[in-house]
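Input/output pair, single chain:
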Amino acid sequence: MNTGTRSTVVEKSRPSRLRRMLGPIAVFFRGFLEAPRMVGSVIPSSRVTIAAMLDRVDWENCRLFVEYGPGVGTFIPHILERLPADGKLLVIDTNPRFVDYIKATVDDERCHARLGSAEEVERFVRQLGHDKADFVLSGLPISTLPEGVAERIVAATERVLRQGGAFLTYQFRPTARDLTAKHFDRLDTGFVWRNIPPCILAWGWKESAA
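Output:
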């Protein structure tokens, strides 16, 4: 009798676990189908990529972290885990489906999701009561954005970052790395094989005053 009861409970729990697992994947995949040029990948980033990107951030001195193109928030829990209690996370996406999903699933008052273009980052930062951001992470597919947009985004990012801050990118092509090198004082690079597909990592550091 007990065995049957346990079996029923297990069977009932499986669909709920499956829904929780497929929820963000389904939202991400649908967002990719709707705007593949803006999402860039059909699969969220791997944990190896996330760790490699965030390990170089000076979290003790980070009060405002910005992410472009958060998708379904793959990076968000890892950022919030590292972010100080008095810090803020600003995520910007042009896809209302992703913004709505983040607002519905992220229960942390430090996270602020905004619908719009990364070109508007300076306005969004001011809305949160800051003049500058400490670090900016971008998962945007720089190489497939409309002409001129990527250049304007990187230029706006350089302006909004404080001295000592950095622009972090992870891409499948070298376009973002090369564009970052044009706008920032110092460039560090890396590569992650354990991602689908493998990706190029770049950290553009703002070392001099604007």
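The beta strands are 64-68, 88-93, 111-115, 133-138, 161-171, 186-192, 199-205. Residues 2-34 form the longest helix (33 residues).
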